Amino acid sequence: MENKKLYSLKEILKFRQMALKNKKTVVFTNGCFDILHRGHVELFKKAKALGDFLVVGLNSDSSVRRIKGPKRPINGQQDRAIVLGALEYVDKIIVFSQDTPYELLKILKPDILVKGADYGGKEIIGRGFAKKTARIRLIKGKSTTKLIEKLKANLIK
């Protein structure tokens, strides 16, 4: 399945230049988005409402393993990118291999950088490259880790 929202670094930079030229606001968020759930969708919806375009930085499989451990990701990066691409709120997706999007943000320089409210303002990596940082309140109990725990508990019964 082709993903028309998945961009290379070169393509995303070309898009960013077009957005700047046309005075369009680019919002950026990132994550593993391993098992998509309501909390993710709400984050994307609120992030998209802040600007004209929402760019999602997606951790590669290798970076997810380094961050979350050897049993993750549950879904590979191609599958995760396809699912993200199906969401109306997501305009562009770029996969990055580093553990953080620091290098990507340094180049992209989004207008608004969005993270979940579980991140303190000073903890948000790359915040200095964005004109504004927004923290979105999370939905209590909605996380991939909680979902995996619930699945494990139900499978063991």
Characteristics of this structure?
single chain, 157 residues, alpha/beta, Rossmann fold, five-stranded parallel sheet, 6 helices, 5 strands, globular
Structural summary, described in words:
This protein has 157 residues and is of the alpha/beta class. It contains six helices and five strands; from the N terminus they run αβαβααβαββα. The chain has helices at 9-21, 38-48, 61-68, 77-85, 102-108, 144-156, and strands at 26-31, 53-59, 92-96, 112-116, 132-136. The chain is globular, with a radius of gyration of 15 Å. Helix 2 (38-48) links the parallel strand 1 and strand 2.
In spatial order, strands of the major sheet run 3-2-1-4-5
Main sheet overview: 5 strands, parallel
Give a count of the beta strands, DSSP E runs of length 2 or more. Answer: 5
- Radius of gyration (Å): 15 Å
- What is the structural class? alpha/beta
Q: How large is the count of helical segments?
A: 6
| Shape-level CATH architecture | 3-Layer(aba) Sandwich
Overall geometry comes to globular
Roughly what percent helix? 25-40%
- Please tell me the total number of domains: 1
Mean pLDDT: 91
CATH class: Alpha Beta
Low-confidence runs (pLDDT<50, min 5 residues)?
none
- Spatial separation of the terminal alpha carbons: 36 Å
- SSE ordering: HEHEHHEHEEH
Strand content: 15-25%
CATH topology: Rossmann fold
CATH superfamily: HUPs
